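Whether sequence alone determines local backbone shape is best considered at the level of individual chains. Part of our work consisted of pairing the sequence of a single chain with a tokenised description of its backbone. This step matters because it turns folding into a mapping between discrete strings. For completeness, the protein is quoted in full, as a sequence line and a line of structure tokens:

_____
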Amino acid sequence: MLLSDLKYDYPEELIATSPQRPSRVMWVDDQGIPSEITIHDLISQIPSGDVLVLNDTKVLKRRVFIKHPFDQNEEIEILFLDALPDGTQKVLFPSKKFKIGDQLALPNGSIMTLLEKGLPQTVKIEPALTEKDFDQMAELPLPPYIQKARHERHNQQADESWYQTAWAKNPGSFAAPTASLHFSDSDMAMLKQKGVKVLTVTLHVGLGTFLPVKVENLNDHKMHEEIYSVSESVWNEIQLARKNKSKVWALGTTVTRTLETVARTAEKGDLQLQGASDLLLQVESEFKIVDRLMTNFHQPESTLLALVSAFSSLERVQKNYQWAIERRFKLFSYGDLSVWLR
């Protein structure tokens, strides 16, 4: 699959800068025909006995702003990633004008020393940062395109709740599983009441969300690993649903990658319910578990768009994205929802 296959044009004003309440839903049937339905319509379309799988990851506050040491009128944005066993930390920040050994003062008084450049960079922080430090000085890592569309680098206060799902439970993500932002706990209670099995898995969204694809052939793209966990009882429920010919609905690409990763380990005779996934789903990938995909509208030239194209087809995605854009659906993390049937 080629990166250029995943290009499309859209008006900048369609980038959502706040959640859509209520959100619009583009329903794409098994013939690839789109229509617009409501969230209530969608809930009514999920029959008793089917399985709906959610991601219960929680987004970490890891985006920190500091004063630029060479220009106090300018701010530097630092995204704190992995803390390594040797005491160093992986971060993302604009390091071009800094030298190895340069030091930056953080808002809590800690000093960050640049050890290694690249994407990401390696730094040493003394004293080390605690979760309390991040709670006090950091923001949730909203996608840069939302900042750009708002003409504002800092989060709004409402993002604290807007950018977490109703069932966010296990801290570890650098981005929200945004398909879940369209639903509430009461929606899930309604589905359970009608006999839908609502299950949860965990996948922590990682660095790959922020790094662009830089190769034309997706076969040459190395996916950043993301930590996942599926309980034995959830996996058994999913297997029972498939045995009974019930449908498995994935709420988001993160759920899809989790289930399809585990399915591949099971197929090899080495079931791994916890681990790290670097699975890239693209055209010609086989889907072994997921029958219904609910997901937001994704950015051009992204691995997320490749996944949707693999699930439906490249031609259907291109056609239906154009259909949605013509009807002014809102795009990306805070945007509207799409539902794809296989």
Remarks:
- DSSP finds nine helices and 17 strands in the chain.
- The chain has two domains: 3-60+158-341, 63-139.
- The two ends are 20 Å apart (CA to CA).
- The CA atoms of residues 20 and 138 lie 25 Å apart.
